[in-house]
Structures are given as structure tokens and as C-alpha cells.
């Protein structure tokens, strides 16, 4: 399946040792797919639905998961070096014991993620939601970027505390969004009154 194009496909693909290097899964529905030892180097999963997938021991070097849904996916023992997860929903994902060196999680949602024992050297978590994420025994965190990331309830090794982060509960975030919406409405009303 190397270089295959599955754009917007609804696939039920399961197996072992399947090669999807450079494949295009943009917008594809892969919910519940189970592949062990699959090759996904440079594959494009932009906006794909990968809910509940089981990709144990996957090789996803430089794969793109931009705006994809990987909620409750099982990606343990994977190799996702330089993979792009920007804007991705990774709620409840299991990425334990994985190589994520150089991966980009900018704006991703990793709420309740199992990230135990993984390597995060040079990873970018800018503006990511890491609420209740578990980084126990993770490596390379000192080299990762956490600017603007929400680490409310996240678990880190005792010797590590990320800098440049925020720590807001989900209720605090909802209240903040409501305040911002009210302020925008107030400004719109004021502008409308000026024009009247």
C-alpha cells in the first residue's frame, strides 16, 4: 500500500506488518482499525478519524496527523519521530513507551493522555492541552517546549517542572471563554450604538 491514496475513504483495515509509507489518508475514516508493526512513514492523516485505533509498534516517522481525531487511540511502543500532531484531538490516547523526538503537538488536546516512558526530546507542546496527562518516567522533557501549554493535573517526574505553562481547570477555561465571548458581545453592542 506504499504511496496509496485513501482520501476521504471509509476503511476497515487490520493486520500485521502492513506498509503504508507515504500513503494519503486525508479525511479518511479509520475508526477501530487494528494494525501491529505497521509502517506509516510520511503518511498523511490530516483531518482523519482515527478514534479507538490500535497501532501498536507503529513506525510513523514524519507522519502528519494535523487536525485528526486520535481520541482513545492506542499507539504504544510507536516511533513517531518528527510527526506532526498540530490541532489533533488526542484525548485519552496511549502513547506510552514511544519515541516522539522532534514531534509537534502545537495546539493539540492531550487531556488524560498516557505518555509514560516516552521520549519527548525537542518536542513542541506550545498551547497544547495537557490536562491530567501522565508523563511518568518520560525522557527528554527538559528539551521540550511547553509555552502556553495547560498542565492542570499533569503528572511529571519529581525532578521536572515545565516553564511557560498555565494551569487552569476545565471549569476555569470555560469561565474564561464565557468572559471573552461576553466582552466581544459588549464591544459589538458599543460599535452598533455608535453607528446608530
Figure out the total of helices: 1
Helical amount among residues, as a percent range? 10-25%
Spans where pLDDT lies below 50 across 5 or more residues: none
- The tally of strands reads 2
SSE pattern, N- to C-terminal:
EEH
Which descriptor suits the 3D outline? globular
Q: Describe the strand arrangement of the main beta sheet, using strand numbers.
A: 1-2
Class by alpha and beta content = little secondary structure
Residue fraction in strands: under 5%
Query: Mean of residue pLDDT?
Result: 90
The radius of gyration over CA amounts to 19 Å
Q: What does the main sheet amount to?
A: 2 strands, parallel
* CA(first)-CA(last) distance: 62 Å
Task: Give the gist of this structure.
This protein is mostly loops. It has one helix at residues 170-195; strands at 14-16, 34-36.
Characteristics:
little secondary structure; single chain; 196 residues; 2 strands
Overview of the molecule:
- The structure is a single chain.
- The chain has a two-stranded parallel ribbon.
- It is 13% helix and 3% strand.
- It has one helix at residues 170-195, and strands spanning 14-16, 34-36.
- With 196 residues, the protein is low in regular secondary structure.
- It is built from 1 helix and 2 strands.
Layout of secondary structure:
Layout: E1 14-16, E2 34-36, H1 170-195
Parallel strand pairs: 1-2
